[in-house]
Amino acid sequence: MKTRFTGAALAALAAGALLTATGSAAEAAAPPVPVKQQQAKAVDFTAIVALSNCSGSLVRGPKSADTDRALVMTNGHCLESGMPGPGQVIVDKASSRTFKLLNKSGSSTLGTLRATQVEYGTMTDTDVAIYKLDTTYAAIRSRYATEALKLSTAHPTAGNAISVVSGYWKRIYNCKIDGFVYRLREANWTWKDSIRYTPECDTIGGTSGSPVIDQASGQVVGVNNTGNNDGERCTLNNPCEVDEAGNVTVRHNINYGQQTYLLAQCLGAGNDVVLGGTCALPRPRR
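and the corresponding structure tokens:
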């Protein structure tokens, strides 16, 4: 899982981020690329937030109203209470967590957003957490001139160009959806129909919770959550792919995200996550 680093490791990763920025500058002088690849430039840090240990984004669903209290999305494993156990689902839990809202370029912070509760959080089948804030979309637009990102209600498409936008590192990774994983297993957790990135999205610790944005539509199709760091098989920070026949594949240095269209379909009136019925998200145990 792409969680935080401290001390020397944090400094090393920061240096690595600077090297990447230098490389990007060099690429700018290269011959023009096809128009489809240039679309990545349209993705910026609008609606992106930084957490104390992860990344996240200000999002809205198809039924969200401007007067609704706004939502911030990140990973379930980024919750301040710690990583939920297998089968654990958290709903309507009080929270006062804060998020730094970035400006369009990612060069500065527009302000601080504050949660009132964890609306939903889990690491079962998916790895997602949704915080409900103490302010509305309309108020955020008025104060910060920032619109929330829209959650797509459709299953993403293999081959589509995507951007993984990290508020923690203030860095954008551009690549494509390489394919989908029937089951992605990491330690005691299993996730369904995960997004596998092409190698260009070499996400690092701190990018957990970053939105995965489809470059063509500008909508969120996933949330970044993990990658195989050491080439190990199905261990913590080393997820493995399991197909329908039970065959296991390890892809060293490949990274993954979890789809969010099911979450979008479960958001009802008032930005509440409505479980049961047509909502396919896991429910709390009784």
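(Above: one complete record from the training split.) The chain has two domains: 48-151, 153-261.
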